[in-house]
Amino acid sequence: MPLSLYNTLTRKKEEFQPLHPPQVGVYLCGPTVYSEAHLGNARGPVVFDVLTRYLRHLQYQVRYVRNITDVGHLESDADTGEDKMEKAARAARIEPMQVAQHFTNRYRQHMLGLGCLPPDIEPQASGHVIEQIQVIEEIINNGLAYEVNGSVYFDVPKYNEEGKRYGKLSNRSIEDQLAGTRANLEGQSEKRSPLDFALWKKASPEHIMRWPSPWGEGFPGWHLECSAMSRKYLGELSDIHGGGLDLMFPHHECEIAQSQGSHAHTDEARFWVHNNMITVNGTKMSKSLGNFVLLGDLFTGPTGPLAFGYSPMVVRFFLLQAHYRSPVDVSDDALQAARKGYRKLMNGLRLLDKLAGDDSLAVSGTAADQTAEAAQLLALAAKPAEFLDDDLNTPRALAALFDLLKRFNTLAANPAALEAVGPAALAQATATYRVLVQDVLGLRDEPRANVEQLLELTLGFYAEAKADKAYDKVDQIRGALKTQGIVIKDTKTGVEWAYSEE
Predict the structure, then answer these.
(1) Domain ranges of the chain
(2) Regions of the chain where pLDDT drops below 50
(3) What is the tens place of the pLDDT at every residue in 122-143?
């Protein structure tokens, strides 16, 4: 069946059809790089990595854009407080761009560790100020923004008067929105309405990050940045735009308003896709609540609520065990269960190598063979993709892969059953398993052995063999290590190893 995705804008699952097939434009709101990324920051990139991988598996030509926010993200959604970048820079007594570069580098390292392929384009907000100013000018010219004392605000009431609906993405009424803001304009006297949001902010004298504009020196609003960068790289209407559920309002709501208010007059994207939150003991994980688990600490452990460290692939598997629209509660028990599941899939890959390379398990027959056993195996192999087609249901796809793996184990233990399947069905099923596990779900084998400990253990066996004058074993161990670029040195104090310099 064709791929369907849940569209937050329409609140239903819809068949995915790109605007300009086979091209697909995907935009993911990336991090604000003022601090280390935590586990909650990883869920969106992992989800969208699987989505883009699967779209490519379906033969679409994907342009995947994931931005870096390095300016304009204030502490409060009400356009007040310090810029998060400048606050971090002031605390560290360094330049804001040093903060941005450091945490951008760290973020990229962590995403690669989690198996996320680099985006095709990774624009930085500070590098697209010209495009943002252009969008603001369009909105002003369309009568939906106003300038006050060097700052520019989007006029939400005027937008609604023109027949648009600010709140259609988050399904919030004006009354609900007002209840979530200050009913008066205290501290925001420039705004005509508390619903209005900043497109451009005038820089105070102490503000470091500033750019010239038609309204004076200042910096762009956080919401504006993604609208401008999405339009630049994916056009006025992209196929898919997404991020965490916490971005739905106000960030994504504002993005739609900005795109509708510009010369584009679009909802910016046809599909708005949101992943749910990571929780700790049922409470949303966030920096503001202080219950977050930093990725670097998670990989080494222990940290926060976790008594152990977990490898990046185990964390990726853990995130894929839940549907992207469901919350995920983090705990040692859940991560340890994920580790078992991940290792079972990796052992499955090793089993496929055995099925393909063990002559005792070789099957006879021709590619044209079509038995009931072959049909059953191919039906199992088709199930994971069926679940991925259903709104990227990774937990059910994983369960289907385990069912397929169970069948592989049965075939490996029963040569007669393997022969009944035939080589064509076996080759197709094993190829499907490999592609889905490695290329679509992005799960790769991680070395779990400690190389230093293994070398010490091997040197111990070498010393025993030498003491026993078992020179055939001595030569065997020397030769095996040499193929790995390691040489053994017999010294007066014992046995040592070194890298081969040949």
Answers:
(1) 4-275, 331-440, 451-499
(2) 183-187, 362, 365-368
(3) 999 999 999 999 999 999 999 9
* 244-256 b/e (C-beta count within 10 Å ≥ 16 → b): bbebbbbbbbbbb
β-bridge partners, 5: 14
d(CA 71, CA 201): 11
pLDDT at position 201 is 94
Query: Which residues does residue 390 pair with via DSSP β-bridges, in sequence order?
Result: 4
For residues 260 and 144, give the distance between their C-alpha atoms in angstroms, rounded to a whole number. 10
pLDDT at residue 231, rounded to an integer? 98
**Which tens digits make up the pLDDT trace of 385-436?**
999 999 999 999 999 999 999 999 999 999 898 999 999 999 999 999 999 9
Both structure tokens of 349 = 């890959």
| Class of domain 331-440 as given by CATH | mainly alpha
One-letter amino acid for residue 439 of the chain:
D
* Burial tier of 331 (Cβ tally within 10 Å: 0-12, 13-18, 19+): middle
The two structure tokens encoding residue 467 = 């003491």
pLDDT at 484: 86
* 306 touches 332 (CB < 8 A): yes
In angstroms, the Cα distances linking 499 to 152, 287, 449 are: 63, 45, 19
How close are the terminal C-alpha atoms of the chain, in Å? Answer: 56
Return the HEC string of 302-360: CECCECCCCCHHHHHHHHHCCCCCCCEECCHHHHHHHHHHHHHHHHHHHHHHHHHHCHH
Q: What is the pLDDT of residue 281?
A: 76
The Cα 336–Cα 109 span in angstroms is 23
E-strand stretches of 174-305:
197-202, 218-220, 238-244, 269-275, 278-280, 283-284
SS3 497: strand
**Model pTM score:** 0.90
For residue 125, give both structure tokens: 């907000």
Tell me the pLDDT of the chain averaged across its residues: 91
Cross-strand pairs, 328: 278
The label of the residue with tokens 């779990």 reads: 448
Q: 4-275 adopts what CATH topology?
A: Rossmann fold (3.40.50)
